[in-house]
Amino acid sequence: MNSRSESAGVRLATDRLRLRPGRVGDAVVHRELWAERDPRVPPHRRIDADGRPTLRDLEDSLRSGPQASGLGLLAVELRDDGRTVGYCGLVEGGPGSAALDGQPPGPEIAFELLSRAQGQGYATEAARAVVEWSRREGLERLHATVWSWNSPSLRVLEKLGFEETARTSPDGASGDMVVVTLEL
Ligand SMILES: CC(C)(COP(=O)(O)OP(=O)(O)OC[C@H]1O[C@@H](n2cnc3c(N)ncnc32)[C@H](O)[C@@H]1OP(=O)(O)O)[C@@H](O)C(=O)NCCC(=O)NCCS
Fold first, then answer.
1. What are the beta bridge partners of residue 104?
2. What value, to the nearest 5°, has the Cα angle with vertex 130 and ends 54 and 41?
3. Do 13 and 19 contact (CB within 8 A), yes or no?
4. Ligand 1 atom with least separation from CA of 145
5. Which stretches does UniProt call biased (Basic and acidic residues) (predicted)?
6. Which CATH architecture has domain 3-183?
7. Is 155 in the pocket of ligand 1 (CB under 6 A)?
8. In this model, does residue 173 exceed pLDDT 90?
9. What are the CA-CA distances from residue 89 to residues 47, 76, 172, 175 (Å)?
10. Is it the case that residue 1 has pLDDT exceeding 90?
């Protein structure tokens, strides 16, 4: 597939990246992301002993389509060659929302990249585009929930101006979860 057809439906673009709605063909990348996850990530977010989620499972969940409103989670592709390297976007709810009692948490920003695409500033570039979109849309606040051991993710959020607001321990085995927020 050439880069022109890869760009169909682009929601956000940066110097090096395009962010577009997910499609069934992204399941291969999602399976790789699942397979690469750190062993400290809770088991329900890693591939189990039976090999689930399978490629077919992930295709089925992508087939259910983008969410009706809001930005949702977008596939991140490289403008250079059209390759999909992960996702970045916004989700409603999430575990951090409950920890922020008293203030509306806003959507949660989330991102994940294939290991071979890491260390080049792509996550920061993609997440910055999502933050800028949120400002343009008039959102008041974003939040993110990150395991305290996840230094690269915390650093990305710090670079974007997020600050620690709360800590929870939803799963004793995986350590603390840091909730960070950004006032827009
Ligand atoms: C978090 C993640 C998306 C970052 O992607 P990335 O494209 O490599 O991020 P960037 O290059 O934009 O920025 C990473 C920053 O973390 C820093 N970093 C990387 N490894 C680090 C470590 N072990 N300790 C401290 N900082 C680290 C980098 O130096 C960089 O900061 P800098 O620009 O000040 O040098 C990627 O590591 C990933 O997908 N991880 C697994 C999934 C995940 O954790 N998702 C987030 C869940 S909330």
1. none
2. 40
3. yes
4. 48
5. 43-62
6. 3-Layer(aba) Sandwich (3.40)
7. yes
8. no
9. 23, 9, 27, 25
10. no
The Cβ of residue 137 has, within 10 Å, a number of other Cβ atoms equal to 11
What is the residue-averaged pLDDT of the chain?
90
SS3 for 179? strand
C-alpha 174 to ligand 1 mean position (Å): 19
CB distance 151 to ligand 1 below 6 Å: yes
CA of 154 to the centre of ligand 1 (A): 7
Assess whether the C-beta atom of 95 lies below 6 angstroms from ligand 1: no
pLDDT in tens, 44-82: 999 999 999 999 999 999 988 666 568 999 999 999 999
Q: Ligand 1 in contact with 147 (CB < 6 A)? A: no
